[in-house]
Amino acid sequence: MRRTMAKAAFHTALNLLFFAVIGTGLLALTYKMTHDTIAISEENEKLKLISQIAPTYTYDNKIMQDTVRVAADELLGTDEATIIYRGRMHGKASIAVLQAVAPDGYGGKIILIIAIHANEKIGGVRVVSHKETPGLGDYIEIAKDGWIDIFKGASLQSIIEKDWKVRKDGGTFEYRAGATITPRAVLKAVRKVLQYFALHQEELFAEVPLAFLEKAGQAKIKGAI
Amino acid sequence: MTSQEMKEIIQNGFWTQNTGLVQLLGLCPLLAISNSVVNALSLGLATTLVMTLSGGTVAAIREIIPNEARIPVYVLLIAVLVTIVQLLINAYAYPLYVVLGVFLPLITTNCIVLARAEAFASQNGIRASVLDGLAMGMGLTAVLTLLGGIREIFGHGTLLSGFDLVFGDAAKSLVITVIPNYHGFLIAVLPPGAFIALGLLIAFKNWVNLRTEKRVRTKAMQSAMQAV
Q: Could you list the residue range(s) of the whole structural domain that residue A199 is in?
């Protein structure tokens, strides 16, 4: 009796193993087949997003390859290292694409990418991911609304600190009725990134990375766009 | 498989045993993603694909799986199929992948897929099981899309918005503004709106069923009276 039970259990285990092996094989095969296509479409998607805020005429280098890895920073709102893309024109720094986090959105973190020209003016801002209320706070997404383009051309010089607020708080920035916590969070984060850029511009574009930077190289970073 | 059986399977999927209205299985995606037509339709079709594949595969191997190991094997199979579908969509339909997001891998945990594997495919032939998966999936897709439409109209005042995200810019002209200058109705977009709309749909289905039943009964009565 015990013997037959052991036999049955063994048979079952063998069966499970058989299907696990077949399943794994199938998955490995599909993964291998699709891996390159997926990598290309993700790269394209990233490039598309970046080209919306850093138009291709602003740089002549390979912006996706000219990257630098920066440590987490309070001004960026990040809690892990991120990658910065650097655009150069005739070898001179022209535009940088930074990643930042607005930690105080209505639904938590809002992840942004921000392009800043070498003259410290904003090229554009895009939301990479967020959990704001659908239909209320999600107008920060370019797919839903053009609101996010209000940052285009803004700089620390052109809009002083007390005006860097939504209209409701006495500032100059428009917002859509129904959600003010969301644009407040984005506004705050964008201003901080401008401050970060003003502080570190030279180091960010340096060919030889300084102490707080490390060259990204081939390193893949979790959470990078 | 006779045509009568085929008809029955299709009827079960769309009406008698509809997963969204009668079996009430797999409600997690139903409630979460049915806030617009495009989301609902996309997830519905992806689920249908997985159910069709899993129905066929389970039916094909049902003879060689020992009875006591069948559930883990089904789960394994479904997980493999979902991951393959996810990889394929990621590679060849990237915009759709972005729209579906985390709900695509979550099809694995949708109990309706396992339920059909256990209740139907493990006892029927390959062709019948494929048809069952297809019919059940399409039935779910229909309910999801209907829910998505209702919630989109009440929540945003539009229909078919966001189709361009999946089908390219050409689909932008498809957007129908049902109620112009609509300020939105948040509860319809949030999960409670899904519960309310689903409740109304189920009530409607039951009402239709009751009416047909009543009509059949009165007809039978009438003919009985005539006979007397």
A: 56-215
Would you say the ipTM is above 0.95? Answer: no
Asked whether residue A30 is domain-assigned, the answer is yes
- Indicate whether A27 and A122 sit together in one domain: no
* pLDDT tens digits, A192-221: 999 999 999 888 888 755 444 444 443 444
- Annotate A112-181 with DSSP letters as a single string: EEEEEETTS-EEEEEEEE--PPTTTTGGGSTTT-SGGGGGTT--TTTS-GGG-SBGGGTSSB---TT-SH
Q: Which domain holds residue B162?
A: 3-227
Amino acid at A95: I
Q: Domain count of chain A?
A: 2
Asked if A30 and B88 come within 8 Å (Cβ–Cβ), the reply is yes
CA-based nearest residue to B43, from B57, B53, B58, B28: B28
Q: CA-to-CA distance for A22 and B156, rounded, in angstroms? A: 46
Please state the pTM of the whole predicted model.
0.71
Distance from CA of A114 to the nearest CA of B (A): 21
Within 158-177 of B, beta carbons closer than 8 Å to A belong to 162, 165
Query: Which of A96, A146, A106 has the alpha carbon at shortest distance from A126?
Result: A146
The structure tokens listed for B194 are: 């899904």
pLDDT of residue B179: 76
In a domain, A9, yes or no: yes
Chain A: residue nearest B85 by CA? A30
Give B-chain residues touching A134 at CB under 8 angstroms.
35, 189-190
pLDDT in tens, B120-155: 888 899 999 999 999 999 999 999 899 888 888 888
Residue A25 near residue B81 (C-beta atoms within 8 A): no
Tell me which chain A residue has its CA closest to the CA of residue B156.
A135
A5 and A111 both lie in a single domain: no
Cβ pair A143:B165 closer than 8 A: yes
Share of chain A above pLDDT 90, in %: 37
